[in-house]
# Entry
Amino acid sequence: MAAPFAVLMSASLVLAACGTSEEPETTETSTAANGEQDDAGTTAKVDLGEVTTKEDTIYYSLGGEEWLGYNGNTPETYSTYNSVVNERLIEGFMYFGTDGTIYQNENFGSFKLLGEDPMTVEYTINDNVTWSDGTPVAYEDYLLEWAAQKIQDGDNQLFNHVGGLDFGDRVPDGPQGEIGGKTFTIEYKDPYPDYQLQVSTAFPAHVVAEQAGMTIDELVAAIQDEDIDALKPAAEFWNEGWLSPTPGQLPDASIIPSNGPYVLTSWEAGQSLTLEANESYWGTPPATSTLVYRFVAPEAQVQALTNGDLNVIEPQATVDTVAQIEALAGSVNLISGDSLTWEHLDFNFREGNEMGENLALREAFAMCVPRQDIVDRLIKPVSPDAEIMNAREVFPFQMRYDEVVSAAYDGRYDTVNLDGAKAKLEEAGVETPFTVRIGYSQPNARRDDEVNLIKESCDQAGFNVENVGSPEFFSETLPNGDYDVALFAWAGSGQIVSGQNIYSTDAPQNYGEFSSDAVDIAWQALGSTLDTAQQLEQTKIIEKELWDQLFGIPLFAHPGITAYDATLSNVRRTATQSTVAWNAEQWVRAE
# Structure
């Protein structure tokens, strides 16, 4: 499944909001891709043995978007661009290997399934795991993460968590443990196939308590009692206190502790964010002392790599980009492979938007979108086996893709049908040319080309396609619903309950406010069974409903490329939303 990522509701935001794109992460993705393996045949992190941190600086970039804040779990900050930094600061119980395989982070702790009726999981944090201010990572941190997806003030969610009420709904009684304890259990009300992902990372509860004017005992008691009034100051800080109203101004170091290999030290707005080795880190020291994440648009990354301004990049895989990197052979290494990121067009179903209210209008647009031409001209030159993507929960290179597609979709939008589009426009009863505003994040050369190809085709059918791409697409256009069609990608990893946070009614990442009882029921059924056959059947139902109601139009799975300075070791590409930085603490320059 998909980015951009659905959401790994409380889990490690490897992610999520939705890849090598600028995408909102979906933390929910279907079965794992066939990612590349290292020489040892494993997709997990490699044990480097004893490590002495080298005094050096490595510069890397995923894109040009500004960092949004320490709390990357709000709908406004949940993006791959944020998590590529924040995952260096906060660790958890699991991580994804290069192909989406789930690995327990044994250095951090462990978890085990105690029983299936009721479904109960026990978590143990290793004794030495602490925040960089010396406070142990403990039960209360995970209780706060649960509260952020459980506590409501009337009809409103008290904490602005991108996971909505997912964790709270699935685990009504919350984590069971003691303040300061290193072990806790959670009991699910129904079996949950992605239980390994539900609990991974958590923010420092002691910081929230202090900033809310509470003791940790008082915060825990307020959560356990669901005392709304007592929790309002804590929620206010959780929602806003970790975010910087002015780009370039980091929050005070005392409120952004790290339990990962790096700490944040400086931020130059529009330029870069600097991470230094965490001197209080409890695990294997990072191989390199300083990482600098630079905000560099994909189109400028190869030149920056050539100049030495960047050492590791993961740009969009275009013909020109690949050719430029190949010309640097000897000084630069290039890795390519499958990607669990996929491009799509989503319609706006918000009240008053004619596109979302008129199925015939959506069908007309789908008939004129030149999906095959987009793949042939923009993707196949880089990835010759690329094909139109006709599912959302399974990728073309994954098992059961053909089975799911054959059950859900008859191919009616695979080729352009201008006559059919004109007839559907007449059926829709709208005046022509009908204006369609396509929003996406700029700068992005490939998306510029995609919109141009769509306009060239659809304007012939009676539409007037307007390009409303903007650098503020993810911060303003998408969350505000100021578009008719949104063009972006979801980036994911290897999950089962894929897309529930995107396609369900009122879900936090359902930006277009689509609603379908049939889809909601199927997601609930899929997310409440461990029976793989039942999961597959519900996936077919979901895919068919999303096609029949035309939630949106899948386009293609992204080809993935990574390029890096040949003097570096341990740089490994991944198919998942974790990006090439998934093991950045292991990068080091050869002597």
Remarks:
- The two ends are 41 Å apart (CA to CA).
